[in-house]
Amino acid sequence: xxxxxxxxxxxxxxxxxxxxxxxxxxxxxxxxxxxxxxxxxxxxxxxxxxxxxxxxxxxxxxxxxxxxxxxxxxxxxxxxxxxxxxxxxxxxxxxxxxxxxxxxxxxxxxxxxxxxxxxxxxxxxxxxxxxxxxxxxxxxxxxxxxxxxxxxxxxxxxxxxxxxxxxxxxxxxxxxxxxxxxxxxxxxxxxxxxxxxxxxxxxxxxxxxxxxxxxxxxxxxxxxxxxxxxxxxxxxxxxxxxxxxx
Length: 246
Description:
This protein is α/β, with parallel strands linked by helices. Helices cover about 35% and strands about 25% of the residues. It holds the Pfam family PAC2.
């Protein structure tokens, strides 16, 4: 049965914000989520057992313990959660996955921060970032000084399904969309989404020097996942402009 298995129920969290890190374009969410978990040495808070997640087990270097491929990590001091995924969620299973996760959002008063890249050819400019929201999320964006979209767009894949469910059930959420490399893992876009999006929304400070200084190593480490995602389907999580009149 689909459920969220809480492992650290002794942690005290008060309507925490949760950074969603499902793999998508540029692996922006994945890179940002992994960095937060590592930088803050976050506690393994829960395992996610939802329909739509591949029935596999994963393990880490220098650790023999098997883990579920999708997990939630917590930082009690910062009142922060991170959804970390080591596998892509197939687009055809996105609705089942979203239904499972959304129920937990509602029950525990979690405010999700959805992350998505929007494919743009790389340049020397700093990737642009903007925010979208549901419920009281617009107020969070305004308070954080995060700009609005400059054109009409759509978010697809599992993250889009999650956003759709939150919208349907009148819950509060925030979405961050950043320009990112459409073909390769993009640590620079992840850096921007952390510094200009997650930090002002949550009030935390997260060093990102490692993302900048080890860009090539991060790209190499994430490239295999990016290739697997391309093999799964082109409808992975991403934001796309809807240029209806062009």
